[in-house]
Amino acid sequence: AKDDGKNTYQFYDKKMTEMALQKIQLDADIRKALKNKEFVAYFQPKIDARNGKVVGFETLIRWMHPQKGMMVPDEFIPFCEETGLVLEIDKYMLIQSIKQIMKWQKEGLEFGKVSVNVSTKKIESSNYIEELTYIIDSLQFDTSVLELEILEGQIMKNPQKSIEILNKLRDLGISISIDDFGTGYSSLSYLKKLPVTKIKIDRSFVIDLPTSKDDVAIVRTIINLAENLKLEIIAEGVEKREQLDFLVNEGCYNIQGYYFSRPLPADECKEFIIAHSKG
Ligand code: C2E
Ligand code: CA
Ligand code: CA
Ligand code: CA
Questions:
Q1: What is the residue with the minimal CA distance to atom 6 of ligand 1?
Q2: What is the per-residue pLDDT across 189-221, written as a single tens digit (0 to 9) for each?
Q3: C-alpha distances in Å from residue 72, one per residue of 40, 63, 212, 263
Q4: Which residue from 61, 71, 128, 273 lies 20 to 30 Å from 42 (Cα-Cα)?
Q5: Ligand 1 binding pocket, CB closer than 6 Å
């Protein structure tokens, strides 16, 4: 029995060393990926379901890993939040997004607003506003087409501080959207104070529409809340006609999801914009 115990310890010890090594390796790989420009911006269209026109895009990161192929954010963003590498990643993705926006503007395309995901770790970092101002100024970028998506759960960890920073972002002309709304337990008193213009209904409430009575009630409540607070509303993760019909019927017209399009590489967006633009 004594020996067994010892073996178990050795086993766990070995496991932990392995995991630690894996993390060190991943950390090194991500730093290298930033240097080698292996991170790429994909763009998922947002559609006004009443007329089928594109009203914007969301930038979503993809990692074109030289050995493992295309990796999605869930495989590395949570780790980057832990280590702080998300600060570099979010900066890189913002710059990529702005460059793409300016390219589309030069081509005379109409695409609404482009939203970029940003971790609160990033917006709460000490030099964030300075860094952002520098990027905007040096690229001579018109911020009115830029939106930042911030997770509701992350805002609510430190709402007082978030309000302060979001006010500065608003002063820079940037719109703010609360991402994954309904999952982060906003207190209504804070929601009223947040300088946000849009809320995004999380995919988890959309999946079982319109059959789940609970989700029907939740989504109705969120849409009513947005109407009462004069906030724009969008739903994500819409894949099926029944989900779309329910949302439109309830007054949520802006839709993002596979029903209209998956996230697209930049070079496929131009065609999409032209096919789904006004006029
Ligand atoms: P999110 O912000 O909630 O983004 C929406 C996710 O839902 C995306 O996953 C998108 O591809 C997926 N999606 C969109 N429509 C549908 C649909 O109809 N069905 C299904 N099943 N999925 C759909 P993705 O691209 O894997 O991103 C996952 C998360 O990673 C994002 O969730 C966001 O929180 C985070 N993320 C992505 N890019 C960045 C970034 O540049 N910076 C940071 N900090 N986070 C990012
Ligand atoms: Ca998002
Ligand atoms: Ca979301
Ligand atoms: Ca989500």
A1: 237
A2: 788 889 999 999 999 999 999 999 999 999 999
A3: 11, 7, 29, 11
A4: 128
A5: 44, 60-61, 72-74, 77, 86, 89-90, 93, 117-119, 149, 179-180, 203, 236-239, 256-258, 263
